[in-house]
Design goal:
The structure holds 2 protein chains of 2 kinds. By secondary structure, chain A is of the alpha+beta class. Chain A is built from 18 helices and 22 strands. Chain A has 3 domains: 31-105 and 148-229, Jelly Rolls; 241-372, Sandwich (Jelly Rolls); 394-566, Alpha-Beta Plaits (2-Layer Sandwich), CATH 3.30.70.20. The chains are: A alpha+beta, B mainly alpha.
Chain lengths: 568, 274
């Protein structure tokens, strides 16, 4: 009898709880602690009740004194609530040297496992073991988490910057978890402590239905994230703590566009670019006085300049970049006054911090040596396709921005003048992934270059927003967007959310090539996409397999490397 | 000067330099042997066979994409320049003359066939990709037959619509006499191989000539048909060039294995009888 005849039950959200040892007693205990005790449980629907969220999306964790809880730079898919004890956050970039943090190397296949692929790969596409799913439901298989305990020793000597203590009743890690960005600080236990770790799907539900939690988190966000962001920004690093606090107090938070920008983008994709640009929320306009320094906190913004009857995109900005500094510096330094040279518009969704010009003039500019000031502004308009070495040409920038490829951290770019359509990349991908390639050698084209339909491992992976189980998540070490096949319930939310159509739903099979069915005899589907060969020792098989140097993966934030590749 | 060279130009220069060095080193070795034990034929034969063996390993490397054995593009570069090296050694070995025995002549021809198919592969892999891009929409090879069928269905719909709306049969007659065959199978393979657009230009010209026999409303349908003819031409061009890019290896690789087998036999016989 083939394995397919023994069907599996259709996967559900909480088939695999975040922590299998979480029980009713622990849930009752958490519900007795504020702010959880203040939550009105009736606001939650029966299908996702408050106790169920705590039971399935949270886990209790104990940490010893000086034990590292989260590391700066790691990608976090969960937030923490301090139940007892206190923790300390090391503030500032690289506040603790990387070598002290005991960061693991990404887990790769060992030599034998690599070799085993030669004969061990299934004959049919998308073959899965039924046992794997049954074990997961029985609680014997869990997502791999880094459980290695790392302790800091001789803390005063390893700490480079300041620290902040967080005590019982506070949250941390929620920014990284909710905004799908790397952790901004290393946090270690100040003393023995007990924490509640909350998977971000659970945190999202709590924020949605419990205003107490939302307010709690939002207040924390403004209080800690703002100063941290300023501290990491060029020109703000040298401010004293008191000055930084003052600057932070006068800084405004502004949000433009919609958080789930992908649905709007998909709707307007066919609208003419010159019309679409007008729909983009305006943050600052060319020709106006620069009344504030704009710092991009999250999302993307388009920097454009009037050009004949339209607008020419000069560049795009993302997290950590600023707008308006050259003009503010020019006006402070020169007798004449220069208005904003570019227009800034939100691309989808963008969070910005606006530091008023007067604050910049009072605290920032006096500290900058004259040699580091930007050159005086001379009104000039570059011609279309003016291009220097190491710069992307205007048409490429327009193409990347219009199609939102700027979101990509590992965008697959193909040079069609070198690609012989041999499909070695496709075959290599298939041999590394269940006999089914994880990308399509097809996509948008600009000149001789094509952006193939392959997961770009986005800076803002909107595919993760709606995932009910957290199956699609970031790899904690490399930040690659990957799917945990065991916890994927095949709901297609991620595939529908991906603005680039880079996630496919596949029907899975048993080792005999027969479809695996649920109780109602429907094929069980799973989401499948490029995982950047995260487990392969060679890295992405597609790049390695290309015999003609026609294919690469590009981080669109690193425009210089991309420009160099285009001009090779 | 050197800083203005692109990555590919630099790589070409370096690889060409390495090729020249290898040829020079081989020539020096030949000279040493020629003055010594007079076994130059064995040296050049063994070098040639060894080089061909290593060249053939490229195919094995392609089957092992997940094993860390350098990038395939590095192998390609090695394959190209080691291939040229093999050609040079081959002429050292044969002394630029045809061998005597039948088996040796067959081996000689097989080597030339492998080398020529390799050079042809190199040339088309450098010329066809840009031609494919510039000619028309980039298509996936496996989807082309389906697209061709779809296009034919679309054309037939246009013809029916034209007949129904204009009550004129000019386009329908043209379809029956010429276009039906054009849309049903791949056409003009040889012309596409050399990059000629002669056939499609002739056909569109012939269709344009029909305008004078048409009512105004029929000309709208004619314009649509001409677009379809151009789309079909692109399908044929993509199918032809992509097909050659894919299938030339089906000549090169079997010939290579024949060459290795024959080369091994030739070597064994040479050692046995000398």
């Amino acid at each position: 009898m083939s394995e397919a005849l023994a069907t599996i039950s259709r996967p559900q959200r909480w088939d695999v709880p975040f922590e299998s040892e979480m029980g009713a007693e622990a849930v009752a205990r958490i519900l007795s602690i504020p702010p959880f005790s203040q939550i009105d449980a009736s606001r939650f629907p029966a299908s996702t009740s408050l106790p169920d969220i705590l039971l399935n999306d949270t886990g209790l964790r104990s940490f010893k004194k000086n034990q590292v809880i989260v590391r700066e730079g790691d990608y976090g898919n969960s937030a923490f609530f301090i139940i007892t004890g206190s923790v300390r956050a090391a503030l500032g970039k690289d506040a603790i040297p990387a070598e002290v943090l005991g960061r693991r190397q990404p887990e790769k296949k060992d030599f034998l496992s690599t070799l085993r692929q030669l004969w061990g790969n299934a004959r049919y596409p998308e073959v899965r073991s039924l046992r794997r799913y049954k074990d997961a439901k029985a609680g014997t298989e869990h997502e791999k988490v880094d459980t290695t305990a790392i302790f800091l020793h001789d803390i005063p000597s390893v700490l480079k910057g300041g620290t902040a203590v967080l005590t019982a009743g506070m949250f941390f890690g929620e920014i990284a978890a909710l905004s799908r960005t790397p952790r901004t600080a290393t946090i270690f236990a100040e003393e023995d402590c007990e924490l509640l770790e909350i998977r971000w799907q659970g945190l999202r539900e709590l924020r949605l239905r419990a205003p107490e939690i939302k307010q709690f988190i939002d207040t924390n966000y403004r209080k800690y994230s703002l100063e941290n962001h300023l501290r990491e920004t060029k020109y703000f690093k040298d401010l004293s703590p008191a000055e930084l606090k003052e600057v932070a107090n006068q800084t405004r938070f502004e949000t433009y566009g919609s958080f789930d920008w992908h649905s709007n983008y998909k709707k307007n994709r066919d609208v003419a670019p010159e019309e679409r640009i007008k729909e983009e929320p305006l943050i600052a306009e060319e020709g106006q006085y620069a009344n504030g320094l704009v710092l991009i906190r999250a999302g993307f913004a388009r920097m454009s300049q009037k050009y004949n009857q339209g607008e020419r995109t000069a560049s795009y900005l993302s997290r950590g970049q600023m707008f308006g500094f050259d003009e503010i510096a020019h006006n402070w330094n020169s007798k004449d006054s220069a208005p904003l040279q570019y227009t800034l518009r939100a691309l989808g969704y963008v969070d910005v911090l606006v530091v008023p010009t007067s604050v910049v003039e009072q605290y920032i500019l006096p500290k900058i040596p004259q040699s580091e000031f930007p050159p005086p502004i001379v009104a000039q308009i570059k011609q279309i396709n003016d291009r220097r070495d190491g710069e992307l040409s205007t048409d490429v920038v327009e193409f990347l921005v219009d199609n939102r490829f700027i979101n990509g951290r590992a965008t697959m770019v193909m040079d069609l003048d070198r690609c012989t359509r041999c499909d070695d990349c496709i075959r290599a991908c298939a041999s590394a992934h269940d006999n089914n390639p994880r990308f399509v050698r097809h996509g948008h084209q600009i000149g001789r270059y094509m952006i193939a339909n392959a997961c770009m491992h986005c800076l803002d992976p909107v595919c993760m927003i709606g995932c009910p189980t957290g199956a699609i998540h970031r790899n904690a070490l490399g930040g690659q967007v990957v799917i945990n096949d065991t916890t994927c319930i095949g709901c297609s939310t991620c595939a529908n959310s991906c603005p680039y159509n880079n996630i496919q739903m596949v029907e899975i099979r048993n080792e005999f090539g027969e479809h695996i069915l649920d109780q109602e005899s429907r094929p069980v589907t799973k989401a499948a996409k490029c995982d950047l060969c995260v487990e392969q020792v060679t890295g992405p098989a597609c790049i390695n397999a290309c015999p003609h140097d026609a294919l690469t993966r590009v981080d669109m934030q690193d425009t210089q490397t991309f420009a160099k590749w285009l001009q090779r | 000067m050197a800083s203005t060279l692109t990555f590919f130009s630099k790589r070409r220069l370096i690889n060409f330099g390495l090729l020249l060095s290898a040829v020079a080193a081989f020539w020096v070795l030949q000279e040493i042997y020629a003055n010594g034990i007079h076994a130059t034929a064995i040296l050049s034969g063994a070098t040639l066979f060894g080089t061909c063996l290593v060249l053939a390993l490229f195919n094995a490397r392609k089957k092992l994409p997940f094993i860390p054995l350098l990038k395939a593009s590095t192998w390609t570069q090695f394959h190209i320049y080691a291939g040229w090296f093999a050609v040079v050694v081959f002429f050292f070995h044969t002394g630029l003359r045809l061998p005597d025995g039948r088996f040796e002549i067959a081996l000689y021809i097989v080597f030339l066939a492998v080398a020529l198919s390799g050079v042809l592969g190199l040339i088309i892999s450098r010329i066809y990709p840009s031609r494919l891009r510039l000619y028309g929409e980039n298509l996936i090879y496996e989807r082309i037959p389906g697209l061709r069928q779809q296009l034919q269905t679309d054309v037939e719909k246009i013809i029916w619509k034209s007949v129904n709306e204009t009550k004129s049969f000019t386009l329908a007659r043209m379809y029956e006499s010429k276009l039906k065959d054009y849309f049903s199978t791949k056409k003009n393979t040889l012309l596409h191989l050399v990059g000629s657009e002669e056939a499609v230009n002739d056909l569109t010209e012939e269709l344009n000539q029909l305008q004078r026999y048409m009512v105004a409303s029929e000309r709208v349908f004619l314009a649509e048909i001409i677009e379809c003819v151009k789309a079909k031409d692109n399908l044929d061009m993509q199918a032809t060039c992509q097909g050659v890019l894919k299938y030339w290896l089906f000549i090169h690789i079997p010939l290579t294995f024949s060459l290795l087998l024959m080369g091994l036999l030739h070597g064994l016989m040479a050692l046995a009888f000398n």
